[in-house]
Amino acid sequence: MMEGLRGLARQGRGYRIVTGLVCGLIPAVAAGIFDYPLRAQQAAIAPEATARTNGPRPDLRDIAERMNANTITVVTSDPPLAYASFGYDLAAVLNSGDELRILPIVSKGAYQNVRDVRFLRGVDLGFAQTNILGYYRRTGEIGDVADKLVYILKICNEEFHFIVRSDISSLEQLRGKKVNFSTPGSGNQLSLRDIFRRLGISVVEVNFVPSDGLEKLKNGEITATVMTSGKPAPLVAGLKASDGYRIVPVPFVNALQDDYLPSTLTHDDYPDLIAPGQTVETLASGTILFAYNWPKNSERYRRIDKFVQAFFSKFSEFQKPPRHEKWRQTNLAATIPGWKRFEGAEEWLVTNRDALQSITQEQFEHFLIDRRIAADRARTMSESDRNQMFEEFMKWAGERH
User: Fold this and answer.
1) Per-run averaged pLDDT (10 residues), the chain, 401 residues
2) Which candidate, 48, 102, 238, 323, has a CA 20 to 30 Å from the CA of 230?
3) 326-356 confidence digits (pLDDT tens)
4) Backbone angles phi, psi at 178, to 5 degrees
5) Cα separation of 401 and 393, whole Å?
6) Pairwise CA distance, residues 352 & 316, whole Å
7) What pLDDT does 94 receive?
């Protein structure tokens, strides 16, 4: 009986082996049938692939060296703010494959940008406010910045937006209240600490990114939030007086004059927030593009100089839509008292005076538009009227630089 069971078992094993072989052969045969067109196609292209493989190979080291030699990194800000828009504009206008590439880096803003350009390997350029540079020069906390940093150009003035609910009408009412200074380590935080200290107003500092600050203000968790950005600031432009928001004015007192400028916000800047015909006085600070002061014969100097040549030569492209409106206020020749300009930029300005004259003419046309003077009327002005208008233009430009 045991022998009979063993025989059945052997038969069962044989059955399973045969079944397994058959089951294994079926998909193999099917794969061979259905895969035939694919194998035929691969066989047809094999000679071409072999030819490519056997042909000249790219010099990978040359590609890597060219990319690294012609890539410029620039530290900017959080995306809603002007520095981020400036960085995007640089890349959009100047990028040219491996010949020149602008690589914007998101950062906390001016305070961190100065430290990054000063110390961080691989960072070439940054945006900052002139009052932040003044702070570092006064404190000396990162050494002699006047010797280590150079500016490329002054772009514009950036305005401080002190945003409150409609029941607040003056900065004095913020005394003892919660005010958002933006993220820790940001230029906005440093500037606001300085401004409130100089004004002698003690507030409770809280720290949120700009969008979160507006949400906290909306919910009544804080009394004010402050942003530094070129007008019109996108986040501010979305606010409405009808929803209970207001921009509170800031007095330009003597204590602020060393590092700040007076500025105004108008209905044209924020039509849903400021009534027609009204203005709001505020503060501004100069915005610059700056670099580390590399030796003139160094590779890093060469890289930044290549950027400057391309940037200045194409600067008129930055003053057209859809680039940030603040570029239209830029005067390439504007200087920053007490600070040294990058030598390559200074040399370009000296050798391209005619180009600068053309840019100044374009800015004059923007001034006429700003004064609501139609182009056809401007063309028919008398020489004396035009000279008087040009004097007003120079004063207008001076207020911005």
Assistant:
1) 45 43 41 43 48 71 83 91 93 95 93 95 95 91 94 93 96 97 90 95 96 96 94 91 96 90 93 95 95 96 97 94 90 89 96 70 59 52 55 53 46
2) 102
3) 898 888 988 888 899 999 999 999 998 766 6
4) -80, 125
5) 12
6) 14
7) 98
* Residue 13: per-residue pLDDT: 44
Choose among 215, 225, 231, 221: nearest CA to 248: 225
Residues of the chain with CATH 3.40.190.10: 62-351
HEC sequence for the chain: CHHHHHHHHHHHHHHHHHHHHHHHHHHHHHHHHHCHHHHHHHHHHHHHHHHHHHCCCCCHHHHHHHHHHCEEEEECCCCCCHHHHHHHHHHHHHCECECEEEEEECCCCHHHHHHHHHHCCCCCEEEEEHHHHHHHHHHCECECHHHHEEEEEEEEEEEEEEEEECCCCCHHHHCCCEEECCCCCCHHHHHHHHHHHHHCCCCEEECCCHHHHHHHHHCCCCCEEEEEECCCCHHHHCCCHHHCEEECCCCCCHHHCCCCEEEEEECCCCCCCCCCCCEEEEEEEEEEEEEECCCCCCHHHHHHHHHHHHHHHCHHHHCCCCCCHHHHHCCCCCCCCCCCECHHHHHHHHHCHHHHHHHHHHHHHHHHHHCCCCHHHHHCCCHHHHHHHHHHHHHHHHHHC
Q: For the chain, what is the mean pLDDT?
A: 82
pLDDT at 62: 82
Q: What is the CATH number of domain 62-351?
A: 3.40.190.10
pTM for the complete prediction?
Answer: 0.68
